C-alpha cells in the first residue's frame, strides 16, 4: 500500500481511539484529596447540621454544580463547547451579582481564613488535576488552552467542594469571593498547562 493510500485509509477510519475513561483516572485523586483534607484540615464537626442551612448548602453545592458543568464541557467536542461556555460565564456573572448583594448587606468578606481558603483549594485540586491532564493527553485537542482551562476549573471546583467540608466561614460574601478566586486560579493554571501539555 502506498503512503498516500495509508494516510487516506487512516483518515477514513472514524473509530474512536481506545483510552482510559477519565472518571476512573479521577477517582484515586479525589480519594487522595479527601484523605488530605481529613488529615490536615479536618471535617467541620457540625457539618451535618450546618449543611441544612441555605448558606452552607450553597457553599457546598455551588462547586458541585460548577464541576458537573465543567465535566460536560470536557465530554463535548470543541464545536459544541461555545454554548456551554456561555452558560458557564452566565453562572459566573450570577455569582458575582450575588456576591455584590451579600457585600451590600454587610457580609464578612475576609473572615478568619481567607488566605487559607485561597491556598487550600488549589492544593486539594492538584491530586485530581494531575491524572485529569494525563488522561486528556490521549485526546486530540484543537483548542488545548481552552481545554486546559476547563480541566483546571473542574479540578478547582472539586477542590472547593472538598474544602467546604472543613470550612466554617458561612458568609456568602466570604465564600463566593474566596472560593471563586481559588477556582479561577485553578482555571488560569489549567489554561497555561493545557497550552503546553495538550494539543493535536
From TrEMBL:
The chain crosses the membrane at residues 22-42, 54-74, 86-107, 113-136, 148-166, 172-194. It comes from Pseudodonghicola xiamenensis. The keyword Heme does not apply. Keywords: Membrane, Transmembrane, Transmembrane helix. InterPro entries: NrsF. This is DUF1109 domain-containing protein.
Amino acid at each position: 500500500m502506498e503512503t498516500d493510500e495509508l494516510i487516506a485509509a487512516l483518515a477514513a477510519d472514524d473509530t474512536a481511539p481506545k483510552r482510559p475513561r477519565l472518571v476512573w483516572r479521577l477517582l484515586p485523586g479525589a480519594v487522595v484529596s479527601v484523605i488530605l483534607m481529613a488529615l490536615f484540615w479536618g471535617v467541620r464537626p457540625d457539618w451535618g447540621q450546618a449543611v441544612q442551612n441555605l448558606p452552607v448548602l450553597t457553599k457546598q453545592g455551588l462547586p458541585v454544580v460548577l464541576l458537573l458543568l465543567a465535566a460536560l464541557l470536557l465530554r463535548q467536542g470543541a464545536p459544541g463547547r461555545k454554548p456551554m461556555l456561555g452558560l458557564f460565564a452566565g453562572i459566573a456573572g450570577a455569582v458575582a451579582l450575588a456576591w455584590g448583594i451579600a457585600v451590600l448587606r454587610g457580609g464578612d468578606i475576609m473572615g478568619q481564613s481567607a488566605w487559607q481558603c485561597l491556598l487550600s483549594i488549589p492544593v486539594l485540586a492538584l491530586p485530581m488535576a494531575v491524572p485529569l491532564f494525563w488522561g486528556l493527553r490521549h485526546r486530540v485537542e484543537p483548542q488545548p488552552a481552552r481545554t486546559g482551562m476547563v480541566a483546571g476549573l473542574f479540578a478547582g471546583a472539586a477542590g472547593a467542594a472538598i474544602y467546604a467540608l472543613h470550612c466554617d466561614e458561612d458568609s456568602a460574601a466570604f465564600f463566593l469571593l474566596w472560593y471563586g478566586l481559588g477556582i479561577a486560579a485553578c482555571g488560569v493554571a489549567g489554561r497555561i498547562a493545557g497550552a503546553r501539555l495538550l494539543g493535536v
